[in-house]
Amino acid sequence: MIGLFAATEAGRRDLVEVGPFLGPDTVVPDGPVRPALHRLWPSLSAAVFFVGAASAVRLVAPLLRDKRSDPGVVCVDGEFVVSLGDDALALRIAEFLGRTAVVGSAADDGPLDELVELLDATADGDLAGCSAALAAGDHVLLLNPLGFPLPALPDTVLSHGEADWKIVIDDRLPAATRADREVRLVPRTLVVGLGSGSGVSTSAVASALAELEARGLDLRAVRAFATADRKADEQGILEAVEDWGFWHGDTSAPLLTFSADVLAAVPVPNPSAVVAEVTGSASVAEAAALRAAADLADGGPVELAAPKVKGDNVTVAAARVLPRGRLALIGLGPGTADQRTPRADAELRRAAFVVGAASAVDQVRHLLRPGTGIHPHGAVELAASGLAVAWVASGVGPSLPPDEGRVETVVVPGVAGS
């Protein structure tokens, strides 16, 4: 729901024009602005003030709690439409009124901060400098070799060519030293499998993990560790996993365990008859890594990122959870904003393409990032090509497609119509 607030006659004239343009998602409260704003704030997705930006800031400041859940704020201030957290809405209103949009404010984290959060990634490099370059309209080269589904990005973000800044999204170490104007985003895609003899030392396990880095993997990308259940209490393994978390910013990664029977059923490229005789499975490190990755992928593809490496009484291997397209099935309810969930708004911001009937798309157009593609059909096909797609419909939303296994599917139901 979008709240429209005006305190002057000129502001009310603009409000009368903008309200019908934004459609049924809007509410215009009666009475003084401040108490109406306090009453509506928890249910708003955005607030549009037809007052000066300074006045708007004073009005909303006492209500701000969390930048991820607070409504976006837009100010129609004379010849300017100022974004205080909702650039897409500000651009849309400015275009309608023929005014100048002022976007990219400090109140908005910007696409890079959101990418870090969406990918559950570690950022390496001058994130603030690169974000500032994006906000200034500079060209930025983005390399995404593993094909992570990304939200709509500014058209100044290039997939090839030359640019002053570069963003690389990868779980592998770069071949060369990172340049000053290069930002690396390291998603957590790797599962490290561990096998050992009894009494293995912590330092031996740590040294074996370092060998994975020598094979080009960035250990900041580790999402989980895995081993045989008979090694669940192996002190050297437990301490090495704890040390990994300490050296990587207190990051937590679970140690998953599997029985010998489960591991024996996992096809591996490097089975060992000796290991089979001792443990009941021809592989521990590779099998545990692949099995745990498959569980975390929830039906998605996985691969062996690094075959087993033998160390001092320990063996390690790494599997990768491969990215796949993302399909969010979003229900919009009967048509009013309070019957659409905050999670639906978040998924719409995450999408590179929105698919649905024109009447459904019009209800949420103001929530979309600039550059988001809009299609009447083809949601599954777009997602299967590796893209982030939101499929919207009234009521509870679209039905789950029969071949959703090709993509990561998220269901965000709305309230059914009466």
Plain-language structure description:
- The chain is of the alpha/beta class and 418 residues long.
- It has 4 domains: 2-102, Rossmann fold; 113-186, Udp-n-acetylmuramoylalanyl-d-glutamate--2,6- Diaminopimelate Ligase, Chain: A, domain 1 (3-Layer(aba) Sandwich), CATH 3.40.1390; 190-321, CobE/GbiG C-terminal domain (Nucleotidyltransferase, domain 5), CATH 3.30.420.180; 326-412, 3-Layer(aba) Sandwich (Cobalt-precorrin-4 Transmethylase, domain 1), CATH 3.40.1010.10.
- It contains 14 helices and 21 strands.
- It has helices at residues 9-22, 33-40, 53-60, 87-97, 111-118, 127-135, 202-214, 235-247, 260-264, 273-279, 285-297, 342-350, 358-364, 379-384; strands at residues 2-6, 26-27, 46-50, 72-77, 80-84, 100-102, 121-124, 140-143, 157-158, 165-169, 182-187, 190-196, 222-228, 255-258, 302-310, 314-321, 326-331, 353-355, 373-375, 388-393, 408-412.
- The strands form 4 sheets. It has a 6-stranded mixed sheet, with helices on both faces.
- Helix 8 links the parallel strand 13 and strand 14.
- Helix 7 packs across helix 8.
- The model has no long low-confidence stretch (mean pLDDT 87).
> Main sheet?
6 strands, mixed
Strand content: 25-35%
Radius of gyration, taken over Cα atoms and rounded to an integer in Å: 25 Å
Structural class by helix and strand composition: alpha/beta
- The order of strands across the largest sheet is 2-1-3-4-5-6
> Judging from the principal axes of the Cα atoms, what is the shape?
elongated
Q: What's the helical proportion of residues?
A: 25-40%
Model regions low in confidence, pLDDT < 50 over at least 5 residues: none
How many separate domains?
4
- As for the CATH topology of the largest domain, it is Nucleotidyltransferase, domain 5
- Total number of beta strands: 21
CATH level 1 class label of the largest domain: Alpha Beta
Provide the CATH architecture of the largest domain.
Answer: 2-Layer Sandwich
Rounded mean pLDDT is 87
Distance linking N and C termini: 19 Å
- Helices, by number, come to 14
Q: What is the CATH homologous superfamily assignment of the largest domain?
A: CobE/GbiG C-terminal domain
